[in-house]
Structures are given as C-alpha cells and as structure tokens.
Amino acid sequence: MRVPVEIEARAKALRAEIGHHNYRYYVLDDPEVADSDYDRLLKELQGLEQQYPELITADSPTQRVGGAPVAEFGEVRHAVPMLSLENAFTAEDLTAFDSRVRDRLESAAAIEYYAEPKLDGLAINLRYVDGLLVQAATRGDGTTGEDVTHNVRTLHSIPLQLAAGAPRILDVRGEVFMPLKGFKAMNARALDRGEKIFANPRNAAAGSLRQLDPRITASRPLDMFCYGWGAVEGWTLPERHSDVIAQLLEWGLKVSPEARAVSGVEECLQYYAAVGARRASLPYEIDGVVYKVNRLGYQRELGFVSRAPRWAIAHKFPAHEETTIVRDVEFQVGRTGALTPVARLEPVTVGGVTVSNATLHNMDELERKDVRIGDRVIVRRAGDVIPEIVKVIVERRPGDARAVRLPNHCPVCGSVVERVEGEAVARCTGGLVCAAQRKESLLHFASRRAMDIEGLGSKLVDQLVDLDLVKSLADLYGLEVSQWAKLERMADKSARNVIQALERSKATTLARFLFALGIRDVGEATAGSLAQYFGQLDRIMAASPLEIQQVPDVGPVVAAHVHSFFADSRNRDVVAALRARGIHWAEQEPKAAPAAGLVTGKTFVITGTLVAMSRDEARDLIVALGGKVSGSVSKKTSFVVVGVDPGSKAQKAAELGVAVLDEAAFLDLLKQR
Ligand code: 9MJ
Asked: Is the pLDDT of residue 1 over 70?
C-alpha cells in the first residue's frame, strides 16, 4: 500500500513537533504543552505508523524503546580517544595548573576558563552522522568502549536526530547519570521487593546502561549532560569551547545549566565555592568542578600528556566516601517491628560531617555485603542520604572479624524475632508491648499527615514511653497539664500547647485515622481508598479479607494485614479507647456496596470446590455486594459458579440456559462488581 502524500506530510510534521516538545521538556526543562497534549501527538504518530509501517524512521520518537535484547555488547573503537582528567584537590594544585598553562602559552594575562560541575556518572560518546544518532559507546579504556546504542536510545534527553545544520560527522561526549530523586525511588522499590540496591547513583547509572535488554534501561531514570566532542567532519569549530557547547544546545543536546566562563584562578575558586555551596541541593551528584581553557587555539597549543589534556583539570570536592572500621552492629526496631541492622563505626569525617553510624537496611543487605564486626569498610554519605556502607575491603579483613547474627529476641523488649522465609525483613513480634514500636507508632500517629498533633516530637515521645505514661495511643489524650509540664524541656505554657494540639486533632477524617493507626502497608493512598469504599470504620472492622480486596488497588497481602489488624482484640480496644476519648470524623454511606453493580440483585448458585476461597467466603462476598445465593438452579438463577468437581447443578444450568462462570470469570465479575 502506497502512503498517501498528505499522510506522509502529517507524519513528518508530527515527528518534528514531538521532537521539539522533547527538547523543551527533556533538554531545557521548560515544556510548552501539557503532558496530555504531548501524549495525543505521540499517539497520533503511533497510529499512522501502525497503519503505514513504511513511515517508521530510525529517528522517529516512537522508536526509543522496544528493541530486542542483545546477546552481548559489541566493541567500539573511538575515532579520537576519550581522555580522562587530571585532579586538583587544593587551591595550590589549581594555582600550579594555571601557572603551567600560562608558562606554556607564554601568557602573562589571566586565562579564560570554561567552568562546569563535574558529574559523577558514566562518560559516553554519541556518534551523529548527518544529524542522525547512529552509535553510542562507553569510554571503556579510552581507546575502545562498549556499544550501548540500544540502551542510550531510550534516554529522552538524547536527541535521535539533531536540529538542522548538524555536521556530517559529530562525536559528542558527555556524562550519563542518574538524578538523585530517581535513584532514591529506585532503591526504595528494590528494598521493598528484597532486591539488590545500588550503592550510589554512579553504579546505578553504569548498571542501567549495561543492560542487555533496553526495556530495563528505559525504565531507569537516566539523563545526560554533554560537555565535549571527539571526531568532527563538515564543521569548522568556532573560537571557544563555550561556543561549541552553545552550538550543541542549539542542535538539541542537553548541556549543564551551571556552566560559565570565568577568568583566572581567583574566579575559578569563586566558582568552586559557589557550586560547592549548592552541591547538596543540586538534583544530581557531582564530585567537583572542571575548568577548561576556553580558547580552542590554546587547547590545541597545549595538547595532551599521556591520557589527559593539559588544558583541563578537575577540582575535586571532599569525598563522599571514606574508609573506617565497623566496631559493632546493633539492631534498631521500627514502627512495624522491622529490625534494621546499624553499623557502629569508628568515627570518620565524610564530606565535612562526622559519621559514626551507617545503615545496613536489612539482613539480606548485610549478608550480601558480608559485613563483619572488625571489618574495614567504605562508608558513604551524600546529601541528605543516611550514611551507608558501600562495601567491605575484604583484603584487609582481620583474622578475628566476627559475623553478625540476627538476634532471636528483640533487643528492646525481648519478644521473639521472626524472619519469614523469603522476606528480607526480620521483625520483633512484640507489637505495642515493645517500647521501640510504641515510640515509632506514637510518632507516626502524631505526624502531620496522620493526626497532625503539633509539637509532639521524638523528645517528648521518648519520655512518654520511657516513663510509662503512654502505654497505648489513647493514653495520649488522658494526660493532665501537670504530667506534661513535668517532662524535660516542658513548662506550663508548652504543656497547654500540646494539650490544645491534641484537642484540635480529635476532629479528623476516617482516612487520616486509618493511616494514623499504622497498619502494615496501609499508606495514605490505601487509607484513603479504604475510607472511601467503606465509608464507616465499623464496616472495615467487620469486613472479611475478600471484601477488603474489593477496594480498588488493594491486593490480598494488604487485605490480610488490614483484616488481621482489626481481628486483634488489642487493636480493637485501642480504637474503642480513642473514640471514647472523643476522636471523631464524619462517617459516609459506603460508596460501593449496594450501588447497582454486576452482582447486585443477582442470584448465584455455587457448585464444586473453589480454589481462591471457601464456598462460605464466596457466599459472604456475594451478599456483601448485594447479591443472593441459592442452593438450587432454576430459571431465576442468574449465574452458576462452577468449581472443581462440580455436581449435577452444572448440567442443570446448561439445560436451562443459565450463564455458567468458572472461578476465574467469577472473580473477574466480583472485581468489576
Ligand atoms: C564531567 N564528568 O562532568 C569532563 N566532565 O572533559 C566534564 N568530564 C571531561 N568534563 C574531558 N564536565 C574529559 C572529561
């Protein structure tokens, strides 16, 4: 089928328009249209390409993801070697560098440098031929790298096609990195699933690019800043490094928004201090700044030593990582009883802050890293991230290093510690008997998005629990001014303020209250869904796990947690006591139940054995959703649900022409209601 000219023109226009919006969104961080507008354009193009596959081009924005996995990475020999940078650690190092530059250039005047943050990622070469991205390779040993084209194509900030006027051949160099927000989210998800976490964003970026399956890379939050070039054909380079960078941006490549030209050592140091001050608040990790002689004529004159240019230097920040010794490993108990191993370290200064503790997350992580007491380890502290042990220096392990064992009993309350087979997390079974769990529960209960009790922080909570003033959540509301006022750092006025905050917190919503209870896996969103679905607390407390599963986005695991929480009489007592203290909310009519659905008013007959639930449970569910269950099939029967080894009822249904559902279809029906 020939592609009609107007369709071909439309596809071309769509590609250009989508390319433009990609550039605004991913390169400039300044979108011109809403995401929905963008999605509509992409969908239209996908539709056209599906109808006319001849329209698909290598640079089409629809072609980023989906390539098949490769068996192994090919090798790429770089046309111009990829260099590394010499390091400066002090102002003296930098002054010495500047003197060498001026001596060689026989220049008395201050040198103009192009200054930019030094990203801690993975150096990549992008080869564009006539503006089309044809190959991407890692730095490798500088001469030969790995072909990662299939993965690099999935990065949205890398144009598949450069804007008009691109040279015949252009090798662009830059750093692929993982922004901190995405890095943290990715590790949090991995921890939840009991999977391996990445020690730092650099490893995460490298691991993500070295995937054989590009769909995995596509799911990772990677970005790239371009800062240099290699082979160039068909373009006469301008006078300055900064002019080239400006042109790369014009062609659609992403460059650092922090880069600028500075003059002489003095301004280099000012730049270093300014970027250093903002280091912790940048959305990505940097390990220093780079200065490059800005005039390309000077760069050519200066040339190279071995594998580093004489015209550039990396001025490093204090390291995020240091080595120290593990003195002990202790276990902290969280709100849900989870035991977190924490390493007690020989204090060490990391990036200007003394670190004496580092988290090991859970037993799986501890075992994977094989951290032993007495080990020499690399610790890392970056931005607001909790200090972590990156790895053990196994070569320096002393003969008497001791392995860490999970305690059988909770270090805080002595209750039995449970580690469910296949789960990374070990838990204290003490519940609210455990002072550590009680403290964390109180803090969670009082937190802003839960009961929002202003002023009730960890200093107060520790005392309340340690002095046994609060054994259960409801006790909070029964303390007198004089009892509050006796606590450390408290006086009459502050005591009255806390009591006022407690009073204010009594008027709440069901969703907040549910969230505040701290039921395992019930975050704000789930609490909101439960509240909306059931409308009333008593209905939730009476619901079976299967009914709870009817709530949108609630699966069997969460449903089981909710059910067992309210099945526990101690928790029911806590809820009753809180309500007796005056905590209240507006109850609603349940959203779902009797509203007309697929089950409402229908009559079901169940025959045979069901796998996912007992017949009684199925009956409860049908009734809860407004349906009826009968023992015999008649013309009035709406559905016959057929399990394993059905009786004669299945045949009767067929004779009467009554709809028959197997178990899967039945479960589907319940989900849709
Ligand atoms: C990084 N990592 O941010 C260079 N780099 O220049 C910057 N690396 C570099 N420049 C020449 N901004 C070799 C490496």
From this structure: no
Q: Which atom of ligand 1 is nearest to the CA of 123?
A: 2
Q: Give the nearest ligand 1 atom to 259 CA.
A: 12
Report the DSSP beta bridge partners of residue 437: none
pLDDT at site 384? 64
pLDDT the model gives residue 276: 93
Quote the ligand 1 centre to 228 CA distance (angstroms): 7
Per-residue pLDDT for 594 more than 50?
Answer: no
Q: Name the helix (H) or strand (E) containing 496.
A: helix 492-505
Phi, psi of 418 (to 5 degrees): -120, 135
Q: How far apart are CA 639 and CA 662, in angstroms?
A: 10
Q: What letter represents residue 412's amino acid?
A: V
The answer, yes or no, to whether any atom of ligand 1 lies below 6 A from the CB of 176, is no
Which of 78, 85, 311 maximizes ligand 1 atoms within 8 Å of its Cβ, making it the mutation to test the pocket? 85
What's this model's pTM, rounded to 2 decimal places?
0.64
Higher-scoring residue by pLDDT: 276, 646: 276
Q: What is the 3-state secondary structure (H, E, C) of 272-332?
A: HHHHHHHHHHCCCCEEEEEEEECEHHHHHHHCEECCEECCEEEEECCCCEEEEEEEEEEEE
Q: Is 506 a catalytic residue?
A: no
Closest ligand 1 atom, CA of 121?
2
| Residue bearing tokens 């354009």 | 41
User: Which one from 12, 43, 118, 628 is the annotated catalytic residue?
Assistant: 118
Which amino acid is residue 248, in one-letter code?
Answer: L
Distance 85 CA to ligand 1 centre (A): 7
Q: Is the CB of 116 under 6 A from ligand 1?
A: yes
CA 255 to chain centre: 24
| Chain centre to alpha carbon of residue 254 | 23
Average pLDDT, integer, range 40-68: 83
Per-residue pLDDT tens over the stretch 448-480: 989 999 999 999 999 999 999 998 899 999 999
Cα 538 to chain centroid distance, Å, stands at 35
Predicted pLDDT at 592: 53
Residue nearest to atom 1 of ligand 1 (CA): 118
Q: Which atom of ligand 1 is nearest to the CA of 116?
A: 12
312 lines ligand 1 (CB under 6 A): yes
Could you identify the residue written with the tokens 């109850």?
Answer: 587
| CA–CA separation, 291 and 93 (whole Å) | 13
Ligand 1 binding pocket includes 119 (Cβ within 6 Å): yes
Q: Report DSSP letters for 82-113, one per residue.
A: PP--EEE-SHHHHHHHHHHHHHHHT--SPPEE
Q: Would you say the CB of residue 290 lies under 6 angstroms from ligand 1? A: yes
